[in-house]
Backbone:
């Protein structure tokens, strides 16, 4: 059975006091019975603080990015082992904002994925097409290229300890979410690409949807058989919204009642 994940990517938002208040409220109100892995991704400078606030709680900590190198003269960069050292368990790699605004290519993203695994952390690989690519029917070729850059470098087995997040660029921060059917189609396609290399790993791989997930639309999206939770931006900054999304992910398992591979 694939346990759902709800991941809150705070992007470049927050402050020490706001983060502390949000995390304490989430820890208080998150139902420990909900079968869902909940992870938050604050900006780098707040990670150590967040780790202290979350110590011993149910919520796990992740970083929004990482350097592909292990150590050395890389001014401004942060390595995977440093992230582990301050309490992170997850690291996002290849977010579309990193690809688009900071020109990260597939090979660099694959190297970051490898660095995260090497440190014993869980990489969350983001893939997704732009609106133009979708309109030109290139969705599948784009996400396959992004996915297979990672398998080419690290092997399909690397996804035994990784997570994939499908985030269509046109749905991020726009209020325009992919329909559940659109998300399901791409998720099933991504799973089939991994299955072509290793069916067992594909069956266990958690594939999250990201792009304007809110409390009001999460249940519908999470009801799709290949959607194993969400990578949430804006709505992860509100305790009410984020908790609704966590509840929707938790109920998905109980309601569907099916034993997933
Ligand atoms: P929004 O939920 O704000 O659309 O952001 C999605 C995202 O980019 C999460 O990584």
Residues:
């Amino acid at each position: 059975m694939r346990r759902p994940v709800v991941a809150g990517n705070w992007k470049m938002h927050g402050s020490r006091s706001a983060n502390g208040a949000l995390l304490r409220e989430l820890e208080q109100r998150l139902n420990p019975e909900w079968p869902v892995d909940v992870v938050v991704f604050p900006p780098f400078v707040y990670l150590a603080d967040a780790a202290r606030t979350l110590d011993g709680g149910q919520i796990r900590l992740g970083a929004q990015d990482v350097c592909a190198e292990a150590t050395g003269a890389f001014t401004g960069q942060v390595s995977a082992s440093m992230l582990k050292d301050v309490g992170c368990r997850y690291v996002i790699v290849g977010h579309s904002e990193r690809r688009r605004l900071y020109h990260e290519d597939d090979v660099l993203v694959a190297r970051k994925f490898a660095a995260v695994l090497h440190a014993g952390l869980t990489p969350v690989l983001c893939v997704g097409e732009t609106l133009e690519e979708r309109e030109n029917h290139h969705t599948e070729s784009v996400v396959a290229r992004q996915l297979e850059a990672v398998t080419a470098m690290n092997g399909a087995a690397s996804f035994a300890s990784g997570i994939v997040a499908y985030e269509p660029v046109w749905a991020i921060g726009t209020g325009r979410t992919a329909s559940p059917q659109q998300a399901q189609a791409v998720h099933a396609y991504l799973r089939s690409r991994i299955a072509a290399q290793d069916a067992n790993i594909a069956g266990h791989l958690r594939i999250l949807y990201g792009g304007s997930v809110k409390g009001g639309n999460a249940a519908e999206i999470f009801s799709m058989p290949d959607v194993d939770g969400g990578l949430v931006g804006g709505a992860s900054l509100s305790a009410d919204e984020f908790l609704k999304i966590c509840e929707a992910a938790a109920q998905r398992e109980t309601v569907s009642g099916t034993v997933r591979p």
Observations:
- The chain has one domain: 5-250.
- Residues 8 and 236 are 5 Å apart (CA to CA).
- Residues 9, 95, 167, 172-173, 210-213, 231-235 surround 1,3-dihydroxyacetonephosphate (CB under 6 Å).
